[in-house]
Amino acid sequence: MDKSDVVAVSDVLAETGSTTHGHCSKAVLHQVPESETSLFTVNPGQQLAMHLHTRTWDLFFVVSGLGEIRCRDSSSAITIPMPARAFCAIPPGREHEVRNLSMTEPFSFLMIHAPWQGYDHVSTSEEACKPKEREHS
């Protein structure tokens, strides 16, 4: 094995990402045709709008914070709680959105897009991303 084949990141939360979708950041950790691994951080109270990928799996592993993934297909809709250390795999063609449930803390997760080659992001929502409304007791 060549040393150049090995990628190691000692603290993914220390990685600085670039702004994406206007309300989160993305720091690419590794990218080859088979997959892209990155750290996404969604700002407090924000969401990544409903979308799908036609050929790519989205593999989520939560590093910190509290969020949820809402996904739907032609016959059903589900909400998946995503606390720290949770994992979720969304297959190609399944609409999904990611929400940060905290109004004060970021929601950070490792995202693996597999395969990366042929990746697409198809928006399926006309609604602009807005801060989540606070629930009143």
Question: What is the structure about, briefly put?
Answer:
The protein contains no helices and 11 strands. The strands form 2 sheets. A 6-stranded antiparallel beta sheet has the order 1-2-3-10-5-8, with no helix packed on it. Strands 7-6-9-4-11 form a 5-stranded antiparallel beta sheet, with no helix packed on it.
Write up this protein.
- The chain has 137 residues and is mainly beta.
- It has one domain: Sandwich (Jelly Rolls).
- 0% of the residues lie in helices and 48% in strands.
- The chain has a 6-stranded antiparallel beta sheet with strand order 1-2-3-10-5-8, with no helix packed on it.
- The radius of gyration is 15 Å and the shape is globular.
- The C terminus is likely disordered.
The CATH topology corresponds to Jelly Rolls
Structural class category: mainly beta
Broad shape: globular
- List the strand order in the largest sheet: 1-2-3-10-5-8
How many strands, which pairing sense, and closed or not: the largest β-sheet? 6 strands, antiparallel
Overall helicity: under 10%
Just give the CATH class: Mainly Beta
Q: Can you count the beta strands?
A: 11
Number of helical elements = 0
**Rg calculated over all Cα atoms:** 15 Å
Mean pLDDT: 88
Secondary-structure element string:
EEEEEEEEEEE
Q: How much of the residues is beta strand, in percent?
A: over 45%
Uncertain segments are 127-137
Ends: how far apart? 58 Å
Give the number of domains: 1
